[in-house]
Amino acid sequence: MTASTRFVALLRGINVGGRNAVRMPDLVGCFADAGFADVRTLGQSGNVVFTARRTSGARFEGDVAAMLEDRFGMPVPTVIRSRAEFARTMDEAPPGHGSPDLRADVFFCRHPLTPEQALAEMPELREGVDTIAVGPGALYFSRVAARATKTRIQKFMALPVFQQNTVRSWGTCVKVSGLLEED
Question: Which domains does the chain have, with CATH numbers?
Answer without folding.
Answer: 5-86 (3.30.70.1280), 88-181 (3.30.70.1260)
